[in-house]
Amino acid sequence: MLLLALDTATPAVTVALHDGRGVIASSSQVDARRHGELLLPAIDRVLAEAGLKLDAVTGIVAGIGPGPYTGLRVGLMTAETFGLALGIPVHGVCTLDGLAFAADLEGPFVVATDARRKEVYWARYADSRTRLTDPAVDRPADIAAQVKGLPAVGAGALLYPGTFPKAHEPEHVSAAALARLAAEKLAAGEEFPAPRPLYLRRPDAQVPKNYKVVTPK
Length: 217
Description:
Keywords: Acyltransferase, Transferase
GO molecular function: tRNA N(6)-L-threonylcarbamoyladenine synthase activity
Number of strands: 11
Order of helices and strands: EEEHEHEHEEEEHEHEH
Strand content: 25-35%
Shape: globular
Pfam families: TsaD
Domain Gcp-like: 31-154
Largest sheet: 6 strands, mixed
Radius of gyration: 18 Å
């Protein structure tokens, strides 16, 4: 087994290689505006660090969000392209699940990432491997009663201490955590969701109202 894991659902552009026993190389850079510029060099870098070529990869692990439209598209299109070119499976993993796994908390807690527009992407967890609620996007004030008193991780939780007073790191997801989680699930024979993006809301760019399509006669 050689898994190539990547995630671009948060400001972190993160990549890792997992050989079935552990993570053998990883890279993470935080830059919300350069996902497309940073992802492929990061993949080259982890392959070089491991002394391997892309054709040695047997599976792709892709963070499916939730996250912004542009960032998610970069990572998922790259994963799909590699999967098709190499003829290998692409396993979708919820980005919030990767953060929860990295947090390694035993009791109930919350994962929240920054959704911008003064909102967070969030979900509740029973433990680091068990999600209790579907991912959602909400204003922190609107979910305060649901998360009251619970520990929380993620950039969204750290941004709103009034709603998440027990917030702490990790701030962003790491591909190393995604890879470890995916390897564990594969070993247990678990199935993965299709690598389809969890957008949860419409993209910022919208077609103007009363837009007229002009076609040549």
